[in-house]
Design brief:
heterodimer, A: about 475 residues, Rieske Iron-sulfur Protein, Naphthalene 1,2-dioxygenase Alpha Subunit, Chain A, domain 1, B: alpha+beta, Nuclear Transport Factor 2, Chain: A, 7-stranded mixed sheet, binds FE2/S2 (inorganic) cluster, binds fe (ii) ion
Amino acid sequence: MTDQTGVIGDVRRGMIPAHVYNDREIFELEKERVFSRAWVFVGHESEIAQPGDYVVRRVLEDSFIVTRDEQGEIRAHFNMCLHRGMQVCRAEVGNASHFRCPYHGWSYRNDGRIVGLPFHKDAYGGEAGFKRKGQRLLPAPNLATYNGMIFLSMDPDAPPLEEFLGDFRFYLDYYTKQSASGIELRGPQRWRVKANWKIGAENFAGDMYHTPQTHTSVVEIGLFREPKAEKRKDGATYWAGAGGGTTYKLPEGDLDERLRYVGYPQEMIERMKEQWSDDQLRVIGDDGFMISAASVYPNLSFVHNWPRVAESDDVLPFVSIRQWQPISEDETEVLSWFAVDAEAPEEFKALSYKAYLMCFGSTGMFEQDDVENWVSLTNTAAGSMARRLLLNSRMGILEDDRPVVPPLGPDAFHGPGEARTGYSEYNQRALLNHWADDLEKPPSKAATLEVGGPGEGAQDAAGRTSANADQISLPAGEAVAQA
Amino acid sequence: MSTDLPVAPASAAVAAITAPESVPAGNPTGTVPRTLSEQSALGGHASRVQRVGRSLPFDDPRHLQAHHWLVDEAWLLDAQAYEDWLDLITEDVHYLMPVRVTTALGAGYDTARGMAHFDEDKYSLSRRVARFLTEHAWTEDPPSRLRHHLSNVRTFQADAPDHLVVESATLLFRNRGDVREGSFVSAGREDLLRLVDGRWKLARRVIMVDDSVMRMQNLAIFL
Ligand code: FES
Ligand SMILES: [Fe+2]
């Protein structure tokens, strides 16, 4: 593999070799060094609310059954049969107490334990030949949740999720913890775009500069009143921990007035006041900033906007969570969910969903123009000329690295991390600096799992021995996913 | 004469559009949400008129009118003549394109709950059309080359006067620029047409797309 030291050095000084947006070798390196260790979002607890509920989600090529077992515990099983490697579950959503492999019929409880192995005695000589006891579908090396959001890491030694997210958790609450019940997630819409995955992540992290140009049309049709050029530069952009985002500056008013300005009904505002810390409330009420788009490294993004949803001046806020799932150096599968506070009134939920559909997702009028840009950019980054071009990603800093605009002081911005107003690419640089850190770090070798072998039971990729499972034969009449 | 002709059986595809159950049937009161339009989060305002009986013979004037309407519409959509298209749509329209999901055979559903690609009323459709008419809808400037291929049209009587239910298959080919290959969307549709002042208008459309993961960069198109 080509030495990428030059690329990494350029990225660190805010000069981006254009080919990183369409380069096979870079992508191979990202697979090995970014997605092998980062915490990757795979879904939300509300998507698997009942015991047996499951969704099948991927981290790169690895398919996982993300399920709630009969004890209510959330698990992620590598979706590969321990026998000859058939995909155990071929549906993407459902409810099942067991999964039966369609190839030779091995079956597994939804907690992953193997329970059925046809002709165990005849074929293997029973436990003497194949230790069924203690075998389970390979668990994801690491699983953790925050505000109900389920993340996987392929690194068994990954830092705890909360540590990884760091101070970004402060901002995550605005999107995912508007009441004690948190959000419910609907979707995702899924579609593939011929664009590199980093472009969307960078855009959502901090590209307030594109809004007035790319999204002119949605202002012209009266859908959205905010993205005027002068409005965007008044918003604060922040980076904290593993993520960062943009905000809009709201008109004068107190906390309640400002939350009402973006369309929240008073009963939701009351719950926010109970839920959020003083500083979280001050960012809106005192500082006057309302969260908009954000990204968490590497490929998770959020958006919060407040369009009109009918022939009236009223606006309705919505939240979307999306993942830029890499397929290749020039293709990304977008998974875009609609998120809404679980305690919100039903009418609010419906209209917020309408707001989402009009603005983002596969049909969203903002998103339509974003994707057009990203696909064209990726096309253009494929050739040899792109290798001669270092894109300038230094907006907001002078030649000597001093800031064009100083960061906001603690009285002007009550959130953690560093925030500033004005146009800048601080966040795009922060995201790519995380990327550069990972690219520089050689991967550690993952342990392997031996199925039913002579060793001391099964081990997961962390080298940890899995818990012993009792031998249970498949109960008759129970729901079994054959999918 | 034509009643003696063999008629197509109610297929799974028909049922998929109208209801998860096997036989499409009217459910005008809507007490139990059965059709996808009823189940959708934004379909509360939609007409509940449903089909009755088997498909009309192909020489039935009502079928000929419905088919003619669909062919005219396909040409409008290819030409992106969206203002004219909006004129063909009733004020109470429900335009729904559910998100399809892969589920086990016995699951009883194959669309995402509470999520669609399109779940539109006249207002949201009109905003989409208005956006294309600005000079700043970059995703369609330069415009795509579009072709809506229409087939498998069959028409049903409805359980209300001045209405027809029409089913069709559509295959949209969309090509942009000169670098990427074109992309396809294949879908089955069930439309409710209503006679308004002597013209047929679209009062409800359910689009059953055949992809769970769309292979198109965005849906800046209509089906
Ligand atoms: S591959 Fe043989 S039972 Fe799964
Ligand atoms: Fe955008």
